[in-house]
Amino acid sequence: MESDVTTTPQSIYRRYGKWMLDRILGAILAIITLPLLLTLLVMAWIAFGWAPLQRVSRIGHRGHHFNLFRVNTRRDYQTDLRGRQLRFSRWLRSTSLDELPQLWNVALGNMSLVGPRPLPPTTIVEPKAAGGLRLTVRPGLTGPWQSQARGDGRDLTDHLSIDLGYLEQVSLKTDLGILLRTVPALVRHREDV
Fold it and tell me: Which residues are CB-contacts of 132 (< 8 A; sequence separation ≥ 6)?
């Protein structure tokens, strides 16, 4: 029998603790990493010109749209980039440092530290379908996919399955485990760019 995330009683952590942990820890991490973020933004500005900080529309909790922040890597203009610029752009994406500004999304309450990755607004999500269940929690800076399956060639269907598995077991222990596994996963399995 399939479990239904929407009818499962919510734990105190899922209802209140996760939001508080995200806001507090997200703000602390955003402030601590601010010097690194400013350095990356200056480097991106030097490499690519203006607009080093990119705002990308995404679907968040309960289907609300929000602006996701990331360091601009000029992904759409790869053919125009020279060798040094292209190497810098690829390095930012492969290390996921282009996603460092998303700690501010967490601090602002648009995202969670752990959860399914946010969907682009072009994604059609049926509220009662499996994809709609992803919207019952705030999207995450990292999630089970990043800690388990990063860079292993799985497709979007597999990501959805992994996300749904996470939704059935949201807890402080699960979230801390995913956070602790994410850094080694980033080092071992860099994204193909």
Answer: 125, 126
